[in-house]
Amino acid sequence: MLFMAPTGIRVLKKVDYGGEWAKKHNTSSLHALSLAGERCDPDTILWLKRHLPSAIINDTWWQTETSWPICCNLLNTQKNGPVFPTLPGSVTKPMPGYDLRIFNEQNQEVAAGQLGKVVIKLPMPPAFMLSLWGNDQAFIDKYLTETPGHYTTGDAGFKDSQGYVHIMTRVDDVINTAGHRISTGRLEEVINEHGLIVESAVVAFNDEVRGECPLAFCVIRDQGNTPMGAKEMEDLRAAVEKHVRKEVGAFAKLSGVIFMERLPKTRSGKILRGTMKNITNGADYKVPSTIEDLATLDEVKDAVAAWRKTLQ
Fold first, then answer.
1. What is the value of pTM for the model shown?
2. What is the pLDDT of residues 164-179, one digit of tens each?
3. Best CATH choice for the domain 100-168 from the list 2.60.40.3950, 2.30.38.10, 3.90.1170.30, 3.30.300.20
């Protein structure tokens, strides 16, 4: 079995979309591949299943605070397979000990399929954090006050009609545009469906007229010795924007599509969407101590500056 971050998978997908390297090796001994650290989009799950057909793909969701998975699949050792069918884009179902619910802004439970904040009814199971070191009040304020009687995870998502859990984004990354609340995870999911896009990050751009609008940063898969020209890039940009309007709705119109060689991430593979959002909107930000490569923030600044010139 192997545990790794989705961002590592996307690196492989970027440089070897056709899975040529996988064909050179015998991967039949890989029984299960578990993913953690960042939401894994459905297209990447399907890419894995194409090139690692013998492996059970298990996308998991948990937090440092919980010490072990809140949601994931289980392995049925008797049948040599998963307990539940794999559903790309979902972290399957809550583990025993977690009473997971989806709340709206009024802390009322919402119906299946509706996006909301993910909370867990107290008490929490063993291994959960007991407090913040030397600051019990901060622990109460951060995790227990907003949703009384429940642990506030800080993530947004939904449960579908089968009870599968979909973690879409952080609550702070939900975009309110044209009277609709959109998760950046849903937009990224749609963008990544394009065969030339291997990874994306969507942040809220504060437009003076429209308010919060989604802005997409996209990484294109390697093109070998024939990189894309300006006309091809513009065609790809238009195709991405059209696909988002078709799959999500006209209200989800992208402010723009910015192509990047890479995205800023933590060493564990989390995309720094909050920092990217602040850079995009000219707001102050702190450089996270966990950033993998500081130079990526300058790359975002340069790309945003170039994009803003196109708006003038």
1. 0.85
2. 999 998 898 889 887 7
3. 2.30.38.10
